Amino acid sequence: MTLLQVQGLVKEFSTPGALGRKSTFTAVDDVSFDVGLGETLAIVGESGSGKSTTARIAARLLEPTRGTVVFDGQDVTRARGKDLARFRNDVQVVFQDPFSSLNPRYTVERIITAPLAYQGIKPAAGYRAAAQELMERVGLNPDHCRRYPAQFSGGQAQRIGIARALAVNPRLVICDEAVSALDVSIQAQVLELLMRLQAESGFSYIFIAHDLAVVRQICHRVAVMNQGRIVELGTREQVFGDPQDDYTRTLLAAVPRINPEWDAKRRQRKVAS
């Protein structure tokens, strides 16, 4: 079953030009994809490819210039008021830099339960108990709920961001470069956490990344973006095992020994040519 469907997304930005004239830059150009229940769709590409802009439109953090966003059969492209609040209860975002997305003046308890307060949800056992339960779920010490973000490491801060996203039991979590700011060992721990949480709760992911090794570990399908367009879309096995687009091949070639089978096929193609 399809949970999210985006169709024909276009996002244009106006930039100052010479003599006071404005020019238009197209960051996302006719992008379409869908995400199934319990599925992880990875959107990959180099910096500036439009992948994060696409994700923010899908989360309704940016308005599209054209195109539609349909969630669970409902067109939410121009949703407002209660409809938008309901959508944001179902779709949460984990951002790239955990510290910049966590208010340094708020305790972890307040940060994690902010989505509950926004939705007007009052947990039966209270906000502190809810925060502690979520902290335990993501592998943090619940006794530290009164601490501030600066008192945590980068990996722990990202776990706080994940706990905040899970507070309202979302159906779709968008991870916008959620592990790119972490070192390799911490990346592995956070990825394992994300996969475990998905197995437990059955929600879907859109996973934005430029690291193809990370994408191969976590995703079911891959959309490759280049210059605002999706140039390849397929299952993990299709994209990594037999890429069809030259840009995809270039990205894969930049990751050493990411897939021995693909490397063997690439060598065979070179010999044949």
Topology:
Blueprint (H helix, E strand, L loop, with lengths): L1 E15 L5 E15 L3 E5 L6 H8 L7 E6 L2 E2 L5 H10 E4 L13 H11 L8 H11 L16 H13 L5 E5 L7 H18 L2 E6 L2 H7 L2 E6 L2 E7 H6 L4 H8 L6 H13 L1
Parallel strand pairs: 3-8, 3-9, 6-7, 7-8
Antiparallel strand pairs: 1-2, 1-4, 4-5, 9-10
Helix pairs in contact: 3-4, 3-5, 4-5, 5-6
Class based on secondary structure composition and strand pairing: alpha/beta
Instruction: State the order of secondary-structure elements, H for helix, E for strand.
Output: EEEHEEHEHHHEHEHEEHHH
Number of domains: 1
CATH class: Alpha Beta
**CATH fold node name:** Rossmann fold
Number of helices: 10
User: How big is the Rg?
Assistant: 20 Å
Q: Strand percentage, roughly?
A: 25-35%
In CATH, the homologous superfamily goes by the name P-loop containing nucleotide triphosphate hydrolases
The largest sheet is: 6 strands, mixed
* CATH architecture title: 3-Layer(aba) Sandwich
Could you give the order of strands across the largest sheet? 6-7-8-3-9-10
Taken from the alpha-carbon principal axes, the silhouette is globular
Describe this protein's structure:
The chain is of the alpha/beta class and 273 residues long. It has one domain: P-loop containing nucleotide triphosphate hydrolases (Rossmann fold), CATH 3.40.50. The chain has helices at residues 51-58, 81-90, 108-118, 127-137, 154-166, 184-201, 212-218, 236-241, 246-253, 260-272, and strands at 2-16, 22-36, 40-44, 66-71, 74-75, 91-94, 172-176, 204-209, 221-226, 229-235. A 6-stranded mixed sheet has the order 6-7-8-3-9-10, sandwiched between helices. A hairpin with a 5-residue loop joins β1 (2-16) and β2 (22-36). The longest helix is centred in the C-terminal third of the chain and has 18 residues, at 184-201. The model has no long low-confidence stretch (mean pLDDT 90).
